[in-house]
Structure formats: C-alpha cells, structure tokens
Amino acid sequence: MTRFGRSVTLAAALLLATVGASGSAAQEHGGTADVAQDAVAPTTQHEASDNQIDISHHIGNSHEIEVPFFGPVQLPQWEPIHVGGLAIDLSPTKHLVFMLAAAALVALTFLLSARSVARSQREGRPAKGFAGSMEALALYIRQEVVLPNVGHHGEGYAPYLLTLFFFILVMNILGLLPWGATATGNISVTAALALMAFVTIEVAGMRTLGLKGYLNTIFYLPPGLPGPLKPIMLVIMTPVEIIGKLSKPFALAVRLFANMTAGHVLVLALIGLTFLFQSYLVGVTASILATGVMLLELFVAFLQAFVFTLLTSVFIGLMRAEH
Predict the structure, then answer these.
(1) Ordered per-residue pLDDT tens for the chain, 323 residues
(2) CA-to-CA distance for 65 and 300, rounded, in angstroms?
(3) Distance (Å, rounded) from C-alpha 118 to C-alpha 129?
(4) Rounded to 5 degrees, what are φ and ψ at 70?
(5) How, if at all, do strands 71-74 and 64-67 pair?
(6) Burial code of 180-199, b = ≥16 C-beta within 10 A, e = fewer?
(7) DSSP state of 76
(8) Which class for 104: exposed (0-12), middle (13-18), buried (19 or more C-beta within 10 A)?
(9) Strands 81-83, 86-88: parallel, antiparallel or unpaired by DSSP?
(10) Is the sign of the CA dihedral 120, 139, 306, 189 positive or negative?
(11) Pairwise CA distance, residues 192 & 89, whole Å
(12) Which of 18, 49, 71, 95 is most buried, by CB atoms within 10 Å?
C-alpha cells in the first residue's frame, strides 16, 4: 500500500472512531440535540438572564421612561380613539417625551440666544460665549447650506430648515445622555420629518412653477418627441417620476433612522460582551471600544442633522429649478 493509501485509511479509521464516540455520548444524553444544548446552554434561566442585555428594550419605544435614581416611571395610558375601523392611541411614550423635550430645548435656547445677541448688538459689540456660538452655527447653516442650495429668493425657507437642523440635532444628542432616548431612532419620527420635508418640497415646486409647470414634473415628456410616441412615454415616465418623488422622503427617513439605531445597537452589543464573558479583561476592552463608538456617535449626531437639512435644501432647490 502506498503512503497516500495508508494516510487515507488512517483518516477513515479516526473518523469512524470519532463518529462512534459521538454516537455513544448522544445516546447517553438523549440525542445529538441534547449534547449540543449541554455544551452551550446556561444551567439555569437566571444565569441566562444575567448574561444578556435586552437591546430592543433600550432602543425601542415604550410607555415608561428611566428616571435617575428612581428607576422606570410609567407614563399614563389612555383609551384609543376609534375612527371607523382604525384605533388611534394618543398615549404618551418615551420617544414622544424626548421629542417634546428636544422641541422645548431648541425653543428656549434660541429665545435666550436671540435676546443675548440683540443686547450685544445694541451695545455695539459681537455676541460672546454660547450665544455667539449659536449665532455662528445658525449663520453657517443659513449662508452655506440653505441659500446656495435652495436658490434665488430662498430666504423664506431658511427658518424651517434651521429649525429642522437643530431639532434633529438635539434629539440625536439627547439619546447619548444617560437615561436618555433617541427619538430619531424611531422610524415613525423620521418618517414624519421626511413627510413634512416632502410636503415642503412639493409646495415649493407648486409656488415657483405654477400648476402647469408642477404637473410637468409628474407627466414628463422630452422636448421634440414625435406625436405617436407621447402616450408611450407618458406611460413609461409618469411612474418613474412618481417613484422619484417618493424615494426622496423614503431615503431621508431610513438614513436617519438606520444611522442612529445602528450606533446604539453597537454600543449595547459591546457592553453586553462584559456580561456574556464575565471577565474583567473583556469588560475593560469592551468599555474602551464602547467609549470610542460613543464619540463617533456624537459626530454622527451632527452629521445626520446636517445631511438631512442639506438634502432637503437640495431637493427644494431642484424642484424650484424644474422649468
């Protein structure tokens, strides 16, 4: 027998011995599934609960909020309102509370900053401190993002777009605080923001182009097209134009939701490694990595607010220029 034949025979013998041993162990434990379960499953349900973090509970919406040193506090729940066959639940949730808190913070910040800037202007000096920083940031968004992209006579859209930027930014940052929640990690919130952007984009087109010009953005016909081809092109291009209009708010909603949710899931997964391995070395390493991801999330909070505002400005400008 050759050397190759002896090697194959030896490998086959080892394989048969391994299968036989596994079969014997499986019979003693009641089957192969039981052997696998004994190898990986925790011994008690309490051990299983201690070694995991419920990520969906931390990033999802609920009818309770975490209060420092007091634990979870239940929010009031009201009876749903039935309209036809539709039940509308208006009970407050965690994300709603933080969304309203973000709106209040934005309003309070700008009221106080505007008062400080006005006082500085009356005294003939530039605003300093926090008020000066807010003025600089607002001017940058207005002058470098809104007006160049919205186009001629775009000043009327600046208040909405500035509010959009700071509202999204504060909601993102609130989710990075201890006991906080990210309202923009809720697809319903980002969808509502995208829906408002969609309405603003379309209304801007109607005001600039008029009814006939706006309809041309839906029922599009290339110039110089022969008469017999016009019905065919209408059938082809009209669905394409409608899909193009709907894809803009869809992209805005999903981009913001996915980016804010992914960062929180990664942080919680890294922290969960500590409880899974129950090791100080793993815990220190996971904490360092989670801190780095949190710093990256702070950058992403600004970036996503900027991108949402920038794309909304671009879409408004493109719609107004369709003539």
Answers:
(1) 444 344 434 333 333 333 343 344 334 444 444 433 443 444 554 454 555 667 777 788 888 888 888 778 899 999 888 888 888 888 999 999 999 999 999 999 999 999 999 999 998 888 889 999 999 999 999 999 999 999 888 899 999 999 999 999 999 999 999 888 999 999 999 999 999 999 999 999 999 999 888 988 898 887 777 878 888 888 888 999 999 999 999 999 999 999 999 988 998 888 888 888 888 898 899 999 999 999 999 999 999 999 999 999 999 999 988 65
(2) 24
(3) 14
(4) -120, -10
(5) antiparallel
(6) bbbbbbbbebbbebbeebbe
(7) P
(8) exposed
(9) antiparallel
(10) positive
(11) 16
(12) 95
252: CB partners within 8 A, 6+ apart? 190, 193, 194, 197, 308, 311, 312
Rounded CA gap, 315 and 215, in Å?
17
Rounded CA-CA distance 267/296 in Å is: 11
CB atoms within 10 A of CB 149: 20
- Residue 106 tokens read as 């934005």
Other CB atoms within 10 A of residue 58 CB? 16
The one-letter code for the residue type at 53 is I
Helix axes 187-216, 158-174, angle to 10 degrees: 160
Position of tokens 């969304």?
A: 99
Q: What tokens does 319 get?
A: 């719609």
Q: Which amino acid is at 47?
A: E
- pTM reported for the whole predicted model: 0.80
**Beta carbons of 217 and 319 less than 8 angstroms apart:** yes
Sorted by sequence, the CB contacts under 8 Å of residue 301 that are 6+ apart come out as: 169, 172, 173, 175, 176, 260
